[in-house]
Amino acid sequence: MLVGLTLGRYLSAQFLRTILIVFLTVFALVYTLDFVELLRRAGDAEGATTAVLARLSLYRTPSVAEQVFPFAVLFGSMATLLQLSRKLELVVARAAGVSAWQFLQPGIAVALLLGIGSVALYNPLSANLKAQAAAIEAKIFSRKMKSIGPDIWIQQRSGEGSAIIRAGGAVEAASSISDVTAFVFDRSGRFSQRIEASEGVLRDGFWQFANARVLGQGDQPRTVPSLSLPTNLVPSQIRQTITPPESVPFWQLGDTIARAELAGLDASRYRLQHAVLLARPLLFVAMVFLAASVSLRFFRFGGVGPMVLAGVAAGFALYVVTEVMRDLGGAGLVSASVAAWFPAVLGSLLGTLALLYQEDG
Question: Is the pLDDT reported for residue 195 higher than 70?
């Protein structure tokens, strides 16, 4: 049975307001800490003015705050239910015959809408801002942007054979890699030579390595200031390889996965990120269920402190499960779908089970 329209709008407004307050508070805190850290790191760096650093921190903050969005839903829902209980509004609702399942409907609806909005609107915005922040940061601090893993591995083929390239770092949103080691094979698949270089830049149809050291079979090692290696890769494919999945907007993930697979590159990280974003609305709903399972105790019964601690512990436990599943999915031990959907489904089922135990319907 659905809750009444008037009561539903009132509860929805309460859930939405509290969740947004929690999220904006965390956003402001992250921005302040990041801005202070940038001021410390910048020092006398050229072009690192206060205005530029403030803008850089503003571009970096949305992607960090996006990671805590589920916890904003959890703590915002807990605060809403505790506030309604403190004002005895839940008592009045129960006396009028409204069950816990009915007055949770507005919270679930708000969580679903926030989840869909965070995926469809907020994520593309934060990803674009993060990419801009990476370019500004690389320019100011003159540093290489690391990929997700410890190294970047690129496999390529050309008319002259194939090659496996390992890079220690890369400039995000560019086509240059650093600390390069390339293993080159001929057309028959036999090892030809090994190339070590401080930097590699992808040009039209070839890699250009600077300060390259070449080691071939039966030949003495030699060092050349510049060396070219043919390739069939294009700059966009390399940028997709070295760009973290969090920097790719949701609406571009499908195309990124297709392009990476077409080029023979590993797209597992992007496939996992796509599945995680699809599962986010259900994860938000799971947070509402978890909040309800620990926040429906009436104030006159006491025990509010342990109840809040239980909610924090439940959120932390779900976070640990989420990170473990993401690591398993990133390592290929479980599929991307299982890694992304398991925490959301588990949280929803546990929250529902707790409510079934507490409520009589």
Answer: yes
